[in-house]
TrEMBL record:
This is IPT/TIG domain-containing protein. It comes from the Eukaryota. Coiled coil: none annotated. Residues 189-282, 471-571, 799-886, 890-978, 980-1062, 1066-1149 form the IPT/TIG domain. SMART domains: IPT (SM00429). It comes from Tegillarca granosa. Keywords: Signal.
Length: 1164
């Protein structure tokens, strides 16, 4: 609403603009009675502030748009300036005059000042501030602080007239709850006046000294005496009084040391003003042994004496003697090899050199001699059970081999070392020693064959220790440059390699080069993809919602080609959470950026994972969507993608864990690629190359050699679709451009340096309906950068397609076997569907490139459309992939003779037209009657003859198929035949009145599941049935003759037969002995009409079989099975007769055979 004030015929009108409206037109006078009316505008509406400015914190800058809300600026600061922590932002004012108030919430204390730079004051592509006389400034309203209320005690101090003892724990002073003063007084100070003796005597061990003075303690443990600074220089107190301490000397270092005495509760003793009381440690060598050794050394030299220390060094004839052990009075060391003659022995410690009183004689006459060793050189891996550098286990016995040492005087035993590695010998003889070579580092290693007592054997030709050379030399690496993303195939040439790839480790810098082939002189490996995977998860802390509600990394710095893998997980008790990863335009946007952006899905999930590869330099913002039910939780982050920097990286080679020696000046030529598709290299330089080779073989990861892909089109198609890939640094030879779709290599059909054409090979069996990632490697530049935004734009999806259909025509009766050829036919037959004219074609077989089905029947001739779907995906059909029903290829049945079957072998004659396959032959025609095969014996176009026996009873259809044509049709009942209901015999004709007799009924047409048998109106339970025979078990009945009735559904009645129940065929059980027993007992059953053949009898006591051991017509013996105690009926079944009576019973008794435990322990 305007404000109007009238004063002295002047109207003052004030308008408040809405939504920062401005530049309004001035009021005009439309018409007036007075000609002196005027309009004066003394103020205009303020121009809104627009544009942007730079906000900087701790050296990082970000552009702020003046239209940002407080929430948007909060997101910008927290994500782009992680060191700022969580902040709150408030915006106040209007569009022409406003301010933001930023408060640091989680970074206590004084923070660095935010810096503002007006972009309008300098040249910038992003614009500057706009408006009327716009200025921007920053004012610190309040510095951060830490409030103490009240002030804690550790920040306060009190005054004292005497020194106080203060204790600090983790830098925090503790409180003194009592008297904490401390004073230094003469009365409390011990003194040392003398020590006796003043020098080591070495007359006994341990040596004892006496210290005199004042203020000592008579309690031994309260006195501590040190003569030097090491722990071994302490003198162990053995006696003490207030004026005297006696102690046993430790192993003090040579020379004079102050006698340091410390008394408990008093402190360190004071020495005379005339000078410190001191004690001197001395040393000396008394003897050395042995006096004579062989030239090879290896013998243990023992020095006897006194005052030896752990830092002692021994030399003999100027050569170092390797220390084995040192005590105060003995030094033992291993003698080195030396030339013949007398050698002086010296010991040096603490700057003092001692000479031994005697020398050691290196005597050639006592030296064991080696005449030869074989081999003179070997590879590093030896014979080992290995665990490869990737963790693979196995056995390798390629390198190394057997070391053979020949000579004389070896004796029958000794030890062997190669270098410092002990090696077990396999044979040891006076003239020959054998051992399996272990893994060894490259270089020359001494053969140390120790023969007691004179030491290591030497070569007879040199009088020196024999050596074996272990070879592992890298002499050439080719090529030496390639893609920054890896994928270059390297050939390493040298000596001493292995054929066991599991023992080889090749790295280029930190990147693994995966070994593809290896021989003794050459290794071929492929540098792995060098892009890193950066892990981001929801273990960060949200200022409001707490743990697990923020990303652990808010701003990740990655390089082109790197992957970022997000993962998030919440406990089961947390509900209402759904997170997705979705690229946005900026820190505050809540909408997907659209095509080209990355996205895990359109909806969120509680627990999930998503990976995206970044292939273009830039800043990428993302959010989680509204992560909780009420939309108050959002997880945000930024990915900063930086370009790859070309670099030089060293090539390292290890075999069996040992690193090779690098011979960079070997002169070995680059290898020649003689394969069908030799790789190519590209020579270029990069002025920004970093790193250096440090005298090693090196590899340059260069941007200028890196292939780059800018587009893939189309993104879906069939195996016949040409895929076009654009970019640069491709190769003109098709085979050198390796394109994979989901790791399946596809065929390149055309190529130049900027364009590739390819198609998916059906042999890859690539899954259909899936967007598969595409990757490209140029042989031998390396892996390409896919400089394409959006996951989906770097993929190719395969669709099924049918390229041909055969045959194209068939019978109106259907059942023509049609083969569809193409690609993408994956899954099972249940996953696929073929329709011909809208009706299902029954699938009989399926592969990835071929499907066979049997056509449905048709009521009319003509061409029918064929449709094919795989996993609900419609296949692309070839132009002529239709099927035609034709009368001239339709077999027709005119007549069948005879028209009845009895179950006997019958020859059928079928007449008609087109009854034979093209080219003739009985194998192309098949016949079934009522589903049963009629075996064809002859065919012609108009007649088929076949043989058949039993067929289900009733009227049955005759079906005929011809290969290449399909199923035959017929007119009316021309294809029908009657199978008669016949019973030819029933055996046996008599049986037990208790039932159980197995009846065998022979005849024709019996149907499984549709046949019933009764004897005297009672069911005879069928136990087995086929078209020609029934076996059933009779029910019980009284003695007499009864009708047998057989009934089959949908068939004429079978003729009636009879069965007689007789006492003569009824087994009788009269008694059992014993009448009561437990399992495992043998019992005798007496009665009548049993079988004398044991296998024809079966005894059941209850539901448990009693195993028969002997049988007679009146008696059976059997062994009881396991059964719960109780009384049970006895039934005997006799084959050919049936069941016995069941009124005789037997009682199973319960028997305890043992009790465990059989004693009890009582606790009282």
């Amino acid at each position: 609403m305007p404000t109007v004030i009238k004063e002295n015929n002047v109207y003052n009108i004030e308008l408040m603009s809405s939504n920062c409206g401005n530049n309004f037109p001035k009021f005009q006078i439309g018409s007036a009675q007075s000609t002196t009316a005027t309009v004066i505008q003394d103020k205009t509406a303020s121009t809104p502030v627009g544009g942007s400015f730079h906000l900087t914190f701790k050296g990082s800058s970000k552009v702020v748009n003046t239209a940002m809300t407080a929430k948007e600026l909060k997101n910008l600061i927290e994500i782009n300036f992680p060191d700022a922590g969580v902040v709150s932002v408030e915006r106040e004012g209007n569009c022409a005059n406003f301010n933001y108030t930023v408060t640091f919430l989680t970074r206590p204390g004084k923070q660095p000042k935010l810096q503002i730079r007006d972009m309008g004051l300098e040249v910038s592509d992003t614009g500057g501030l706009t408006g009327s006389n716009v200025s921007v400034s920053l004012v610190v309203l309040e510095h951060g602080r830490l409030m103490y209320q009240p002030i804690t005690g550790d920040l306060l101090r009190t005054s004292h007239d005497k020194p106080q003892v203060a204790v600090n724990i983790n830098g925090i002073p503790s409180i003194c709850s009592g008297d904490c003063k401390f004073e230094w007084t003469q009365a409390s100070t011990p003194t040392v006046t003398a020590i006796s003796p003043t020098t080591e005597q070495h007359t006994s061990y341990p040596e004892s000294v006496t210290i005199t003075g004042t203020g000592f303690s008579s309690t031994l443990a309260d006195n501590k005496v040190m003569m030097g600074t090491s722990s071994e220089s302490e003198c162990t107190v053995t006696a003490a009084s207030s004026t005297s301490i006696t102690c046993n000397l430790g192993r003090g270092s040579l020379g004079q040391h102050k006698v340091d005495v410390i008394i408990k509760d008093k402190g360190r003793a004071k020495h005379p003003t005339s000078g410190d009381v001191k004690f001197e440690f001395i040393s000396g060598i008394n003897s050395v042994a042995p006096s004579t050794v062989g030239l090879g050394g290896g013998v243990t030299l023992t020095l006897s004496g006194y005052g030896f220390h752990d830092n002692a060094l021994v030399t003999i004839g100027g050569a170092s003697c390797t220390i084995i052990s040192i005590t105060d009075q003995l030094v033992k060391c291993t003698l080195p090899p030396n030339t013949a003659g007398m050698k002086s022995v010296t010991l040096t410690q603490n700057g003092i050199t001692l000479n031994a009183p005697t020398q050691v004689n290196y005597d050639a006459s006592v030296t064991v001699k080696i005449s030869s060793i074989s081999p003179a050189s070997t590879a590093v891996e030896g014979n080992i059970i290995y665990i490869g550098w990737r963790g693979e286990e196995g056995v390798d016995n390629i390198g190394g081999g057997t070391l053979v040492i020949q000579g004389s005087g070896f004796g029958s035993n000794g030890t062997l070392k190669i270098g410092d590695i002990e090696v077990a010998t396999t044979t040891f003889g006076d003239t020959e020693v054998r051992a399996e070579l272990p893994p060894l580092p490259p270089g020359n290693h001494q053969i140390k064959l120790f023969i007691s007592p004179n030491g290591y054997a030497v070569l007879s030709s040199t009088n020196q220790l024999a050596e074996i050379e272990v070879i592992l030399k890298l002499q050439n690496v080719f090529p030496r440059l390639g893609s920054v993303l890896g994928g270059t195939r390297l050939t390493l040439t040298g000596e001493g390699f292995t054929t066991n790839k599991n023992l080889i480790e090749v790295k280029v810098g930190e990147h693994i080069c995966n070994v593809e082939t290896a021989i003794q002189t050459q290794i071929v490996c492929l540098i792995e993809y060098t892009g890193k995977t950066h892990e981001i998860n929801n273990t960060g802390r949200h200022y409001e919602f707490g743990e697990s509600h923020a990303w652990n990394i808010l701003k990740a710095n990655v390089k082109v080609g790197d992957r970022v893998r997000w993962s998030w997980q919440y406990p089961t008790f947390v509900s209402g959470i759904a997170i997705r990863i979705e690229q946005t335009a900026d820190e505050s946007s809540t909408t997907y950026i659209g095509n080209g952006g990355f996205r895990s899905g359109t909806t969120g999930v509680k627990n999930g994972q998503y990976t995206h590869t970044f292939t273009r330099v830039g800043t990428y913002h993302y959010w989680s969507g509204f992560a909780n039910d009420i939309g108050s939780l959002i997880l945000r982050g930024i990915i900063e993608v930086e370009p790859w920097t070309s670099s030089i990286q060293n090539v390292t080679l290890k075999v069996a864990g040992y690193e090779a020696t690098y011979v960079t000046n070997s002169g070995v030529a680059d290898p020649t690629d003689n394969s069908n598709c030799p790789g190519v290299t590209k020579t270029c330089t990069d002025p920004n190359l970093t790193g250096n080779s440090n005298g090693r073989f090196s590899f340059s990861f260069l941007n200028c050699t890196t292939p780059n892909v800018t587009s893939i089109n189309p993104r879906n198609g069939t195996t016949e679709t040409s895929i076009h890939i654009s970019g640069y640094n491709f190769h003109t030879t098709n085979c050198n451009n390796e394109i994979t779709v989901d790791n399946a290599l596809i065929s390149v059909t055309d190529s130049n340096t900027t364009s590739l054409t390819c198609n998916v090979n059906p042999s890859t069996s690539l899954s259909i309906g899936v967007s598969h990632p595409v990757s490209i490697r140029i042989n031998n530049y390396g892996y390409a950068v896919l400089d394409i935004l959006g996951d989906i734009n770097r993929t190719f999806g395969l669709k099924p397609m049918v390229s041909s259909l055969s045959p194209a025509a068939g019978s109106l009766g259907g059942k023509t076997s049609v083969t569809l050829t193409g690609s993408g036919f994956e899954g099972t037959m249940a996953d696929s569907s073929v329709l011909i004219g809208g009706f299902p074609c029954e699938i009989t077989s399926l592969t990835y490139t071929q499907i066979v089905c049997k056509t449905p029947s048709s009521v009319s001739t003509g061409v029918k459309i064929v449709q094919f779907t795989v996993k609900s995906i419609s296949a692309e059909m070839c132009q002529n992939c239709n099927f035609e029903y034709k009368a001239d290829v339709t077999p027709v049945i005119s007549s069948v003779t005879p028209v009845t079957l009895t179950g006997e072998n019958t020859e059928l004659t079928i007449t008609g037209t087109y009854l034979e396959q093209q080219g003739g032959g009985i194998s192309g025609t098949s016949v079934k009657v009522g589903g049963e095969s009629c075996y064809v014996t002859s065919t012609s176009p108009t007649e088929v003859i076949c043989n058949i026996t039993t067929v289900p009873c009733g009227t049955q259809k005759v079906e005929l198929w011809v290969t290449g044509k399909g199923k035959a049709t017929s007119g009316g009942s021309n294809d029908q035949i009657t199978s008669q209901s016949i019973i030819s015999s029933v055996t046996p004709s008599t049986g037990s009145i208790h039932g159980g007799t197995i009846l065998q009924i022979d005849g024709n047409g019996f149907k499984q599941g549709q046949t019933t048998v009764t004897v005297g109106g009672k069911a005879c339970n069928i136990e087995d049935l086929n078209l020609a025979q029934i076996k059933c078990k009779t029910p019980s009945n009284s003695a007499g003759t009864f009708n047998i009735a057989v009934s089959v559904q949908n068939c004429l009645n079978y003729p009636s037969k009879s069965f007689q129940y007789t006492m003569a065929d009824t087994p009788v059980v009269s008694s059992i002995n014993p009448q009561q027993a437990s399992s495992g007992t043998s019992v005798t059953i007496s009665g009548d009409k049993f079988s004398a053949n044991s296998i024809d009898n079966k005894v059941m006591i209850g539901d448990i079989t009693c195993a028969i051991t002997s049988a007679g017509t009146n008696s059976l013996q059997c062994t009881l099975g396991a059964k719960v105690a109780g009384t049970y009926p006895i039934i005997v079944e006799v084959m050919g007769k049936g069941l016995s009576n069941s009124h005789v019973t037997f009682t199973y008794s319960m028997t305890a055979t043992a009790v465990s435990p059989n004693s009890e322990v009582k606790y009282v």
